[in-house]
């Protein structure tokens, strides 16, 4: 984290900046969990009236103190506007997409975004389909604006999992906040 905090991201290409911010977010998250381990859920980390560490100033970049929410909601989501970002940000919870096996780089970002999207959408925590119901991750509900209308969401899901392209049945959302200690 010390090395990442000494970087001035603006000096790099857009692809390098994206990889930097995703890697920084994930490294901070892992570090926070390790600092508080053992803990049952990342939501238990933080102040008395907080829900997790997302609003805590956790790093200074280019002279600015940032929170995890700043990185996700003020940098990554609005600047890149790519819903696949949700598949590579890890919040250390069982309901979250898996941490990728390697850091993102300018060269591998698109491959890892596609891989992460495919893996999550084809996992039960991403989209669990039974004969009469589809249970999606709450990520799709919390970040509706990133995935678009319900029709656009199902087009997105169907790109990675064709059986979801034209789903019209009952839809529910679920998320497991238990710590993913793997």
From TrEMBL:
Coiled-coil annotated spans: none
Protein name in the entry: Ser/Thr protein kinase
Superkingdom of the organism of origin: Bacteria
Keyword Transferase attached: yes
GO molecular function, one term: kinase activity
InterPro entries: DUF547
Domain DUF547, chain residue ranges per copy: 10-121
Pfam families: DUF547
Species whose genome carries this gene: Vibrio genomosp. F10
Swiss-Prot/TrEMBL keywords: Kinase, Transferase
């Amino acid at each position: 984290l010390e090395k990442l905090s000494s970087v001035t991201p603006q000096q790099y290409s857009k692809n390098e900046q994206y990889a930097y911010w995703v890697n920084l977010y994930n490294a901070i998250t892992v570090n926070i969990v390790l600092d508080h381990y053992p803990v049952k859920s990342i939501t238990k980390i933080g102040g008395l009236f907080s829900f997790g560490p997302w609003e805590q100033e956790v790093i200074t970049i280019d002279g600015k103190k940032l929170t995890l929410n700043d990185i996700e909601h003020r940098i990554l989501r609005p600047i890149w506007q790519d819903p696949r970002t949700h598949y590579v940000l890890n919040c250390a919870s069982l309901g979250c997409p898996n941490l990728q096996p390697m850091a993102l780089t300018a060269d591998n970002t698109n491959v890892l975004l596609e891989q992460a999207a495919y893996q999550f959408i084809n996992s039960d925590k991403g989209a669990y389909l039974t004969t009469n119901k589809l249970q999606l991750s709450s990520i799709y509900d919390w970040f509706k604006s990133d995935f678009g209308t319900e029709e656009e969401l199902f087009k997105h899901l169907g790109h990675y999992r064709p059986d979801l392209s034209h789903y019209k049945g009952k839809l529910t959302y679920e998320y497991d906040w238990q710590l993913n200690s793997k």
